[in-house]
Amino acid sequence: MIRDKAKILLGIKDDLQDDVLDLIISNVTAHLMSLLKKPEVPPALDFVILEVVVRRFHRLGSEGMKTESVEGHSVAFYDLKDEFVPFLDIIAEYRDDEDVNRARRGKVCMI
User: Is 80 exposed, middle or buried (CB count within 10 Å of its CB: 0-12, 13-18, 19+)?
Assistant: First the structure.
């Protein structure tokens, strides 16, 4: 299901990249499970897997780079450790640990 949606987003119409997509999906799913501290990813978070899979697929061949510039076109990549940053608030809603019900640490600024 995620592979089919990823192929649509990536414009892939054949099966030549299926093994690569399956491996990326497996790795992203394992990473998300470790963030969630759960043995499986809730279906409601499939969109997170899909978004990160598409990003990782686009990054194939450029894994070690942070930026790439070709003839005036520049691309900046997320560090792998930051791939889930845009989704951390959503992921926190599904985390399975004792810290979920505690107040979050923050900071107060007095002006």
Answer: middle
Number of neighbouring beta carbons within 10 Å of residue 24: 23
φ, ψ for residue 101, nearest 5 deg: -90, -5
CB 37 within 8 Å of CB 96? yes
Angle CA(4)–CA(25)–CA(62) in degrees, nearest 5?
105
The pLDDT tens digits for 14-35 are 999 999 999 999 999 999 999 9
| CA gap 89, 84 in Å, rounded | 10
Side-chain-facing half-sphere of 72: CA atoms under 13 Å: 0
The Cβ of residue 79 has, within 10 Å, a number of other Cβ atoms equal to 8
Task: Give me the residue spans of the domains in the chain.
Answer: 2-97
